[in-house]
Specification:
Elements: H1 3-16, E1 25-29, E2 35-39, E3 46-49, E4 57-61, H2 63-70, H3 76-81, E5 85-89, H4 91-100
Parallel strand pairs: 1-4
Antiparallel strand pairs: 1-2, 2-3, 4-5
């Protein structure tokens, strides 16, 4: 597994915690670099590799775009409008994620 993906899984797990309130599953798809799966429906919540898993909401973006979002050098709305971030499935679930990751 890509070292960056392992770091994202670890850090996201800390931020999400055992009870995120998401109430669904999310997947960050980084293309050939891999993916991250957030199970916000089970208790405790879990963050793991997303390879081979489907989710209620899938966010497709590059690792570079993800890093820019996390460091707040790119606004999620602008990334979406520019096509750098694509959301498939439950958009409401994607909106719940921002405050959990410190963007709210």
């Amino acid at each position: 597994m890509n070292a960056q993906i392992e770091t994202i899984i670890s850090e996201m797990g800390k931020r999400i915690g055992a009870k995120s309130g998401l109430g669904g599953t999310m997947k960050f798809d980084f293309g050939a670099d891999g993916s991250v799966f957030i199970d916000g429906a089970s208790e405790p919540n879990a963050v793991s590799s997303g390879d081979g898993k489907s989710a209620d909401c899938t966010i497709t973006l590059s690792l570079e775009t993800f890093q820019r979002l996390v460091t707040r050098t790119l606004d999620p709305t602008i990334a979406f409008m520019q096509g750098k971030l694509k959301v498939a499935g439950d958009m409401g679930l994607a909106m719940k994620l921002a405050p959990l990751l410190g963007r709210g």
